[in-house]
Amino acid sequence: MVNRPAALLVIGATLVAVVSCEMGILFPSTGPGTTTPITVLSFQPGPPTPAGPSVALSVVNVGSYPIAGLTATVYLPSPFEISFPKVTTASPLSADRIATTYAPLFGGGGFSCGVGYPMQILGNYSTGASFSESTVAPFSCNS
Q1: Alpha carbon 124 to chain centroid, angstroms
Q2: Which domains, from first to last, does the chain contain?
């Protein structure tokens, strides 16, 4: 396979899009003046599980392209990974759709109500292009 450079579409001083010459697909830039494709809607206690308490994380796809894979890592300070197993290439998260997942807290937990936790969200579009977003998600104990 031959590597081909990407073409850049620039209007003024703002990078508007990157066009992959290999794939021929237009993706929005995640540079200045653009938004990331995922917004955290809620981060709160989830239902109890046989393994113990859990957390619930809900996100919305605020982008224009379907998302085919999604994982969030919360830093407590050690990393706590929350996966979205229902967001797949066979069942992508479409624009304006919400995904909620639950993750058991092995060992009893570690989240405090009203505290904002650093979170990194990694994902990929159904075309294979990836994205990453860092945010602070407040842990809400109000349902």
Answers
A1: 9
A2: 1-34 (no CATH), 36-138 (2.60.40)
Averaged confidence pLDDT in the chain: 78
Pairing mode of beta strands 116-125, 130-138: antiparallel
Q: Note whether 40 and 137 are within 8 A (CB).
A: yes
Tokens encoding 28: 């929005």
CB of 81 closer than 8 Å to CB of 61: no
Q: CA 87 from chain center: how many Å?
A: 11
Q: Which pLDDT does position 16 carry in this prediction?
A: 35
CA distance 35 to 33: 7
DSSP, collapsed to helix, strand or coil, labels residue 141 as coil
CA-CA distance, 141 to 46, in Å (whole number)? 10
- The reported pTM is 0.74
